[in-house]
Amino acid sequence: MTETSDDIRGLPARRAALDLLTAALARRSGLDEAAGANAFRGLEPRDRAFARALTLAALRHLGPIDRALEARLAKPPPEAVKNILRLGAAQAFAMGAPAYAAVAASVDLAAASAATRPFKGLVNAVLRKLTREPPNLADPEALAPSWLFARWRAAYGEDTARAIAAVIATEPATDLSLKAADPTLAGALEAESLAGGSLRTAKRGDVSAWPGFDDGTWWVQDANAAVPARLLDAQPGQTALDLCAAPGGKTLQLAATGASVTALDRSAARLERLKENLERTGLAAEIITADAATWEDPRRFEAVLLDAPCSATGTFRRNPDVLWAAKPGDIAALAGVQARMLDAAAAKVAPGGRLVYCVCSLEPEEGEAQTTGFLARHPEFRIEPALPGEAGAPEASLTPDGALRLLPQHRAGGGDGFYAVRFRRTPQ
Q1: Catalytic annotation, pick one of 244, 310, 358, 360
Q2: Does domain 220-425 have CATH number 3.40.50.150?
Q3: Is the pTM of this model over 0.70?
Q4: Are 219 and 194 in contact (CB under 8 A)?
């Protein structure tokens, strides 16, 4: 997104961006919560779009920007001042605003608050120094938090870790899953067809105004996120269970196969969005609000999908804040949750049935290690290997044991990072 002189000094949008960035760096889900707040939603649509775009640009380039700022600051300023500097740098170097205008707008933003007003001179001086010696926003090793990059290097090697990190700085296109194949949609949506049947479009703006939205012919879903439900291979008339279903993209996929779908999630609020999408698309599913780990129901299902809670480090293309909100201890804690949920999911699989486990995480403890532990605890299950290219997965993602480790750079143009594996329960 390139700014124009008309909005370079728009203080309401910049205050909103400062609030969004502060929330995103303070806690997990902070960006989404702040973006849903009444104050943000009350902005003009143009201001909302600009504030969100500026915040995401700062988050996608936060590592290199912080390195450059730290080299030019004698001591750390208050966090609000640092966030103003981050936004100013993102404007100038990631969004293409004229450097002088980005500096002036950042000084204006600092002057707008009593807490940051005394630092106007600092903001001006530091950003002017940056304009003379711009940061290297393309340095892969700087784009991810150092502890995460070290993990990726240990898990995948130096070259792959750098390839993963390089994707952080890219603004993603929008991927769509279709209720049914429609050869006319690609042209109408200015989209390309991807393996597996997803569409990818570079269109921007309100998706509800795009062709086919009101007709319910598609929904927004990353192409890699669509792989696990396809891997489950639910058939018409089969019983299918989607655990941790909200916000519902995978439920819609399962329902579109003609399977009889039960969708379960502990969050009633998030399930409301699923209900809305079911109504819009004309698809059907039984909706249950419950904790998947403790849900008591005597039924067994022919196909079970568990998209488990995880660190979500694979979703950084659309949610770059996850990289900076995640903490090393989160991964170990979530791994315990995942193991318990896998055990609960296994109990819901009918003899001879299939179970797909997936996480939108790049961390082996949440993927490969869960498979190893699960098979040790459940000898009644075995891996049913994915075939090369099955479910629209890039062939590079297929692991020796038949699971899928989808890395962001495996798909041209990028994709979410996922781990997915299909198990088959032995007939009894």
Answers
A1: 360
A2: yes
A3: yes
A4: no
